[in-house]
Design the sequence.
């Protein structure tokens, strides 16, 4: 009887998971299908299989709408943000994990508390701060510099990134740190030459999470960027929605161009992702 109940539970679980997978994947398949159709077919057909595959839609979207410029802008911003996050918060995580100082745990808990602060609640003070620092023009038509765009994103990723790095470094054997110090290595040498080479999983995890978040960011760039030459892909895609007649095939082609880099990055780093996420969350 117990075996029958267990078998029924497994079957029901697979049915629910399969239905959830189909519901999750269908919008992505519809986007890919629509990017390969004419606009008339997108509006008139519900089939995911195009009657005529139109790769020229994607090519024309890339060339005629100057998507290369916005793609480069998104790559530049995302790479700089992820690089800054990994460099700054890996050092902070190493300090919390392997440096003894007064208030270590209290300060770490304070950083974790920032996870519960919604980002939208600090947008206005953040804009005022950047304006006071000269990172946003004082005139209404002057937007932020790249530094003014990137630094708040790096700052916002601090609490969770520090949490992952600190707990991952704390999970490594303390003998590594002690032996290196006995051999004469400085704290910087221990961090850079021993701990960082061993932290590939957590670097990949932090990198993937923040690359996706920065690549898809819309609210903050839309607030501080006024120069169209500096727009990222999400801002350009929003422009396509402001047309009198929306060309859905072009809109989906632009969305596909935006999604592909995220998929590629995840496929290359997926074997490290779960390892880094679990290792960084086991030990508090």
Sequence:
């Amino acid at each position: 009887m117990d075996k029958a109940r267990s078998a029924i539970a497994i079957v029901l679980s697979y049915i629910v998971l399969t239905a959830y997978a189909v519901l999750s994947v269908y919008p992505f398949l519809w986007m890919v299908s629509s990017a390969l159709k004419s606009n008339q077919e997108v509006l008139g057909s519900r089939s995911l299989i195009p009657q005529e595959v139109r790769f020229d839609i994607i090519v024309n979207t890339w060339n005629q709408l100057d998507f290369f410029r916005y793609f480069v802008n998104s790559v530049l911003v995302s790479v700089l943000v992820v690089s800054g996050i990994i460099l700054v918060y890996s050092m902070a995580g190493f300090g919390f994990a392997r440096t003894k100082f007064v208030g270590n745990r209290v300060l770490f808990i304070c950083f974790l508390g920032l996870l519960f602060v919604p980002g939208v609640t600090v947008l206005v003070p953040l804009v005022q701060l950047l304006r006071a620092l000269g990172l946003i023009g004082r005139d209404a038509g002057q937007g932020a510099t790249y530094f003014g765009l990137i630094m708040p994103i790096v700052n916002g990723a601090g609490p969770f990134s520090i949490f992952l790095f600190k707990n991952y470094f704390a999970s490594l054997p303390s003998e590594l740190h002690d032996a290196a110090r006995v051999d004469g290595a400085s704290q910087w040498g221990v961090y850079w030459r021993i701990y960082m080479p061993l932290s590939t999983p957590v670097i990949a995890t932090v990198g993937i999470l923040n690359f996706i978040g920065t690549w898809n960011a819309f609210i903050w760039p839309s607030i501080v960027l006024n120069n169209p030459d500096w727009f990222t892909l999400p801002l350009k895609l929003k422009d396509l929605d402001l047309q009198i007649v929306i060309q859905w095939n072009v809109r989906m082609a632009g969305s596909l161009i935006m999604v592909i880099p995220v998929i590629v990055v995840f496929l290359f780093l997926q074997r490290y992702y779960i390892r880094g996420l679990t290792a960084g969350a086991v030990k508090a």
